[in-house]
Amino acid sequence: MKPAKTKLFAAALACAALLVGCGGSQTQDQSQASATAGGQDAGKVYRVATNAEFAPFEFMDSSNNIQGFDIDLMNAMAKEGGFKVEYKHQPWDSLFAALGNGDVDILASAVTITDERKQAMDFSDPYYKITQVILVPQGKNIKSAEDLKNVNKVGVVTGNTGDLAAGKILGADSSKIARFENITLVTKELENGGLDAVISDSAVVANYVKNNESKGFTMVSVPDFDEENYGFAVRKGDTQTQAMLNDALKKVRESGEYDRISAKYFAK
Fold first, then answer.
1. CA–CA distances in Å: residue 232 to residues 71, 115, 223, 225
2. Could you give the number of structural domains in the chain?
3. Is 136 exposed, middle or buried (0-12, 13-18, 19+ CB in 10 A)?
4. Could you tell me if residue 2 is inside a domain?
């Protein structure tokens, strides 16, 4: 999902690295999942922050509970690893500062592993692979990244990897780039005709197209965008939590539970 060398993201990274509070609005706590004896730190509850506005990886269900692939995977890892987790839904642009401040222990929010981010935080082993793609509405002839230079507005989520991708094509300060707080807002603007295209993560766009077939939108894959990996983020130097997550992720993959969770969310 997500880096972008925007001023907003750079500020968030700086705050995280300096362990200084930065931004943040009201959050919603939700405790879920798992814990059996044998955890690395008996009795400790790991606080997991997510921005539950990025289906199918994390989203709020009709009962206002946090759901999604990342959540199910983390729950399975907690069960296998014998540790407990508690979830907190909060704005995307507050996640990195919350981790750096020590307000949370883990980020599970489709966070793309990048060299820039690894300067301020550490990551688990990769758990999901994606690329950036272009979401195109009916009537728009967009076949390549180069075609985006000929449109009026391209929508992205601020601080997501799509933001960086758009900046590389159009220039980071281009007036053609329209930035939004979350994927719901940017796709709604596309539906309303205010945008010519949206750049976002392939699995998220595929999920949107699948659940909005009547709108006639298409997903355009282009070779210009690099392959990316999601990872669970932990505080810089927190090798204990990092090792715990890696061990649990390995067990979930070996047991076949990873494939069952993946099929639940991504089966075509």
1. 11, 15, 26, 22
2. 2
3. buried
4. no
CA-to-CA dists, residue 233 to 166, 175, 222, angstroms: 24, 32, 28
Q: Model-level pTM?
A: 0.79
Coil, helix or strand for 252?
helix
H or E segment at 255? helix 239-255
Residues facing 179 on adjacent strands: 156
**Which tokens go with 239?**
């090798």
Q: How many CA atoms within 13 Å lie on the side-chain side of 60?
A: 14
CATH number at residue 13: 3.40.190.10
Q: Are residues 155 and 206 in the same domain?
A: yes
What is the residue-level pLDDT of the chain in tens, covering all 268 positions? 555 433 334 444 444 443 333 333 334 445 444 444 344 566 789 999 999 999 999 999 999 999 999 999 999 999 999 999 999 999 999 999 999 999 999 999 999 999 999 999 999 999 999 999 999 999 899 999 999 999 999 999 998 889 999 999 999 999 999 999 999 999 999 999 999 999 999 999 999 999 998 999 999 998 888 899 999 999 999 999 999 999 999 999 999 999 999 999 996 6
Does any domain span residue 152?
yes
Say if residues 224 and 145 touch (Cβ distance below 8 Å): yes
Written as six digits, the tokens of 85 are 């987790």
197 is written with which tokens? 């295209």
Go through the chain and tell me how many residues it has. Answer: 268
CA 164 from centre of chain: 14
